[in-house]
Write the structure tokens for this entry.
Amino acid sequence: MTLTDPTIRPRAIRLVEYLEAVRGLREQPIRDIAEYRDKRWWAADIPSHPACVVTATGEEPWLRVSKASVPPPPPVPPTVVPYLQAGATDPEREPALVDDISEIFDGGRDELEVLRGQLDAYVDGPWREWSVKALPAVRARALYDDLFELRQRLQRDSAMIELVWGNGILSWMTGGVRIVHPLVTTQVQLSFDAKTGSISVVPEALLEQQHHLEIDMLQGLRLSGFDLVVDAHERFREDPTGPFDPENKLLYGKLLAPLGHDGRVLEAAISPPPTSAPAITATWVLMVRRRATMYRRFFGDLKDALDAGQLEVPAPLVAVVADEPGKLELEDRPDGDDSWHRTAERLLMPLPTNPEQEQVATRLAQHRGVTVQGPPGTGKTHTIANLICHLIGHGKRVLVTSQKEQALAVLREKIPESVRDLSVAVLGSSTASLGQLEQSVRAIYENAVALDRSLARQRIRALDEQLTSIQRDVGALRTRISESIARERDSFTLGTVEYSPSTLGKWLADHEVELGYIPDDIEPSFPCPLSAAEIADLFRLVREITPEDRAAARRRLPPAADLPTPAKLAAAMAELRDVRDRLAGTEAVVQDRMSLERLTPDELARLINWVEQAARRLELLEQPWLVAIRGELRTSSFAALWRDQIKAINEGIEELAAWRNRLLGHRIALPGDDLDLGETALPGKELITQLAEIRDRLAAGKGINKTFQRDLYRVREACQVDDEPPRTADDVDLCIIEARTRRRRQELTRRWNDAVGRVGGPPLSPGTGQPEYLLSEHVEGLKAALSWEDGEWQALRERLQAAGVRAAPIPTSADLAALANMLRVAALHVREKELAAWLDAGAKHLADGAVQPQASPLWEALRQAFAVHA
């Protein structure tokens, strides 16, 4: 059967009609870009920021987005920060107070209003000014993140999705159908500049037809002027215009004419909502969509061309509809050209092969096409790499296509490096992929220019002869293997039993010890292995050695290299005795040696380290007053009392630290202080109340009258903040903090002395300037004592008991230090086992040698001597 078979064309037409009908059932045109359900950016969505640059001419990248720097927000008033709902770092969301501010605010209504006023002043002032500058930067950064993520997605799923720049947005509502879709589209790609970190939108470089006029959205609407739209589509294919071409407005006007009399072309950044009057907006949109083509129209055009005889039936369709496609003649094969048949005569495959892979190459030389299928991991990529090398070796050119780039990348790595340089790989449209393509072409060109054809032919002939020789050797080996397999059917009689070659070989191996003394056949031409003097010594020994000695000499002797030296054996025995003596001294501590020996060396080392740390920690807790407190901590009522004391003192120290931070950099004097003598007075509660009243009046904008608030005036004048009377509410607040600090220090000193006085603890002098520093050290000792008695020692003791080690209920640091030393000695059980195992292995070696066939009596003598000394 050939291509002139009259049944092929009708079959092909019916197949195309079927494909067109099936595609019509499955494919519905997208009329609204919202139906793509993916990312899209209108021209109006691009933030007005220096990091985002949109082209004006189309010569440079159409859109370039760089990393934008967001200015930091202005600081929020400290009094407002605790009550903010979500901070002040989002320029799109005004800072606001929490919803339940009236419930959690601990001040009065007037103070709350002051707080609200502070927030309003902050929002309307510095925050508003910052948000105007920060909002475009934040949106530019969000756009950069979206494009960066999209670039990775396009690299991963480029076979499924595409990035399109659409111009001329058609907005129309007709027959209840909503249309919002660009008419002119260009497939674009994202390029990344490694130096600047910017991302650019540029046209796809490898497409022959970059710009397209899309009319799919108008199909199936029963438009009376759709033929005119199709004609415009054909003219556009012959003379396309880019999105920045000034003639696009004329194109939009021509496209509106067939759609109705009320159509109009608009200039706007975003298209208006669709109405009954069609409108084309001269703006653009960048959108992501699934790859699609006009399959139905393609099938229709193909069917018409086949039916009219304008087109020969394509070879792939012939292969589908023909009864025996494998026997069809190739159209482009000249008469007498048998180069394809010759590819089956010699297989040039550099990678390992099997018969199935070789059969693929053989069938490929005789058929138009060969289908190879199989699950993952069955060697399809391996077979393709072999076929590529095989066909290139026969002077053929090979084109490899794949649905995804990953498969091509894996295949390229599979091809040997010597052949890989002859391949041009188009693995994507990114800048890196295009660079790799250029590098491959340049390498092929350089190799072709530098090629010495005469030397190459000589090398080819030499390699061809070498390959022929290797193939002859392979054939000879296969012949020998076949003969060996055939000889397996032979039989040999030994005694009364018949053996095959393999069973006879096994019998000989089993009897090697018994029959191995029989020498092999010696060829007459083999030189004598002994000299004349050695032969004379041999005859002399034959005369002198008795038959008994000769029999003993033929027996198996222990190899000296396998036996330990006396010194090594004595050292091992001495070390074993020493280890066992030292282990015997740990019996008082180790109550369950099996439990201890179950620990790994690392676990035992960690346990010893734990005990040593506990000993050092306990040594610090053996001060008499801490010993007394530890005794009380073992009683639940006293333990609760000491916990309360620790908690109260810690809270006081933390409060003093916070107040001290507020007072840093200020010099505060209260009534009764003598700054010249460095003496300070202890303020009373009444002074703190008066200072609070002064602060409230100053915060409310009220003054302190010398006549009507005489006492308050006198108090304020007696106070000093940085050598001046307090003038503001903040100044008075510093005086209040100083007064409370002095009273809290007195309270902590009294509490500490009352608590530790009865146990002989270190007292604090009432005149101590800053007692919190000393208290902090003493409280750490109390915490350590509480932790020790509250479970720290109990946890260690339980771990020791689980390891089979005794421990006192209330140990001293000396007890724990001695226990750690004992455990370190107990760890020697590992060395004891090593030495014992070594000695047991030596004894077993001698015992096994004594019972082997033809064993010398020396084995038994050594075994008995070893048993006595070991």
Remarks:
- Residues 172 and 867 are 107 Å apart (CA to CA).
- The longest strand covers residues 177-192.
- The longest helix spans residues 109-157.
